[in-house]
Design goal:
alpha/beta, Aspartate Aminotransferase, domain 1, Aspartate Aminotransferase, domain 2, 13 helices, 14 strands
Amino acid sequence: MKHRIAQEVMELAESETLRIAAAAKELKKQGKSVYDFSVGELDIPVPMWIRERIREALEKGLTRYTPAAGLPELREEIANYYNMLFGTTIDAGNVLLGNGGKSVIANFIRTIIEPNDEVLVIKPYWVSYPAMVKATLGKPKFVEPQTFFMPTLEEIDKTITDKTKLVILNYPSNPTGIIPPKEYLKKLCKHIIEKSIYLLSDEIYIELFYDERPFSASTLDSEYVVVANGFSKMFSMTGLRLGYLIAAKEIIKNTAKIASHTDGCPNSLSQYGVLGFTKHLKELDETREKLKNRLNICKKYLKNSNLKLDYDPSGAFYVFPKLTDKRDAETFCIELLQKEHIATVPGSAFGDPFRIRISYACSEEELTAGLEKLVEFASK
């Protein structure tokens, strides 16, 4: 039987990062020793206090529907968290919880994008942005910065048309780990919203920085600014699926309408698990220190290799080196997995066919051993 699948879905590609992670897991099932640098998932366990609160919530039977926008007390805590860190003046009405960052971003895009609306996406980009836009019948348009992944105002302006409705920024960046200077980002964000274009600032890695705290677009206090964030990266909760959106109350109200039909409500146990998270932010210092050490390991092994790290990453847990011999990254990554059992993601998934993404979210031992083999393979 030939199923009649919607054309826009037929044209979508599977998430390349999840596809490669699945291939790596299959090799492990076969008894192979695999170095998995593919997925953005910390090896650090979920903090004990979250596990204990989830257990308590389960024992109390707190497994029923919550409000579609999330628990009011958690929405209030998230608002206070941003107010405390970035000097914003938001409240619970500016916050929408959802089943992971992907869910809240996709539901927001559905809320504002109509067929043929254009969305500017900066290369290299997180793999899911273009797919989310296409799924709403919008059109992704790509900006390719000439200077270390940071677009100039002129490069943005060249891509904007009268159909442009949204620009998506993601810093600290997946796949590069770059954090642009605060003044640069502030100027860029202001330039976009002054054109009455929505700005989606994906800040899922904003707690994973190794120098000064990154800029948040929330500080601009504009009806056109929408912030996406979540608990997956900061507290290693990738499978527990809890993200949130910060936006004008009208945006939150209308995005919550969609969420009420697509999600029903955010995961109740995860919400109860993270209540009180602002009391535990100091614990992230240890996570940042571990990741900084791992980044230094990456820099050490990639230096003078055929994988050139030609910029200075300072956040998230990725590096995005360039293949110096101009080999096709997709072929390189396939052969690397097949021959050496090292899983990485080709840059083509992010809009750059001559780079690969390496996630250093694994242990230092695995990272060191895997990078030794990776650098040797790249030299052949």
